[in-house]
Amino acid sequence: MDAFFNRLEHYARLSAPARSRIENAVHQTRHYQPRTALIRQGDRLGRIFVLEQGWAIRKKELEDGRRQILNFLVPGDIFDLQALINSPADHGVETITPCQVRSFETAAFIDAAGTDFTILSSLWWATVQEEAILREQIVRVGRMTAIERIAHLILELQRRTRIAGLGHARGGAALPITRGQIADALGLSPVHVSRTITVMRRMGLIATDHVLEILDPESLVSVAGFDDHYLHLDASPLPADLFSRQKPMTAGL
Amino acid sequence: MDAFFNRLEHYARLSAPARSRIENAVHQTRHYQPRTALIRQGDRLGRIFVLEQGWAIRKKELEDGRRQILNFLVPGDIFDLQALINSPADHGVETITPCQVRSFETAAFIDAAGTDFTILSSLWWATVQEEAILREQIVRVGRMTAIERIAHLILELQRRTRIAGLGHARGGAALPITRGQIADALGLSPVHVSRTITVMRRMGLIATDHVLEILDPESLVSVAGFDDHYLHLDASPLPADLFSRQKPMTAGL
DNA sequence: CGCGTATTTGAATGAGGTCAAACTGAGTGG
DNA sequence: CCACTCAGTTTGACCTCATTCAAATACGCG
């Protein structure tokens, strides 16, 4: 449970009982090869999943094959809390590296969240953060140049892998993503991504010996106009009394 | 409370007590001129707001003035449930027409949601829908041509205004948005939006006598490749027993 | 009327796309 | 160990969709 606990504890310290509640909600753990569909568009989801190891993507595809990567999933990420609504998935999730995925019984998961405030609080933070990432993605794709988009995405992934407990302290995040994936995430062509990355390499911003690495974080931030505020890295626990006046959830039923 | 109730009841029928709980949570109602900032990036939010009348936008701005509209807000939309976390807003909200906005005490609002399952369920649906809209926005901006983006956005707004109880039964949604706003939403220049809309008008898809109106919904859908599934228009209530096994929320504190 | 804002149209420019070919590197099988 | 394959990357040449700049036009509104 390392990645998941690690993630939740980024937002709030979990008590021992809280941890065991979560552990008890686990349904199973599976391994997947790269390029495996974890959720297909149209699926009705009965479970909640957590990515424990590896990288995955959320994606949507158009009729004619055009593909848009909505977001990258890194260890500790949850998909999908919105499984609670019994509605077909409006997008797909697919592994891009070998992955370890844990699944939870929805009801048990909700029990755990509902009975422990720190869990609920952390889950809410995770949701807020994911939405913020989607919004920033819109800005990248809508209003940034190619080099800005790429630099910005690299920095976001570096921050996120740091939270996930991967990646090194400074610069050196190693991102296992291809030019084609970057292109599909940023609304560019693979060819242009390649060209732009070559430029960035020549500028000394990054290195690309097999995986992408950050060499000059400061300059990269400046190229991207990157402000990591939207990631809420300084997440503080919700005020502990936020729900305290609340009656039991079942009161209204 | 028309727009808000109307919206919530799109997802689940509200009981009379549920309605009055919501009504009691209202803090105040205010009117705003167009181009008024409702939330400024960096604000810490103490309230939850509902747009009762008029249109607004969520937006982010880059240092050099480039602007990205993340989403349009129509009557019945909530901003922001994420106010629960006491964190500075990572984006702004601004009126684009005269607006009526209702604000809620966060605690009272949570009380209402926590004590009534239908309210909670509807709020969750609204959150899921908003996230889906953000994802679709990424696809538009990342992978669609100018005419596809515009047609797609028009159709989304038409569907959403229909939920909001505005707009007419078929085609005729009247959208009070300018070329410049469309451009900032879709990552285009106002000039090109103007050109493209001219083309669409000549194709008989839309009319633009002061407000934008849909003339030929079917062709527009085909031009946009529009599949309204992501809007979850067929929202059904959450399974009523979803939370029923749950212990009181305070149990873990 | 006169001012500010939005829209339209034209002409020139440019960022990024497409097509195509060469190159790299990690398997994999002979 | 080498040949072969397959996926990813790089580079060049050309093209196109959308941007920019600029000027003209329309539209409230005081």
TrEMBL record, chains A, B:
Name the UniProt key words of this record, in alphabetical order: DNA-binding, Transcription, Transcription regulation
Q: InterPro entries annotated for this entry?
A: cNMP-bd_dom, cNMP-bd_dom_sf, Env_Response_Regulators, HTH_CRP, RmlC-like_jellyroll, WH-like_DNA-bd_sf, WH_DNA-bd_sf
Family annotation (CDD domains): CAP_ED
Taxonomically, which superkingdom?
A: Bacteria
Q: Name one Pfam family in it.
A: HTH_Crp_2
Q: What is this protein called?
A: Crp/Fnr family transcriptional regulator
The HTH crp-type domain, residue ranges: 144-218
User: Where is the Cyclic nucleotide-binding domain positioned along the sequence?
Assistant: 10-85
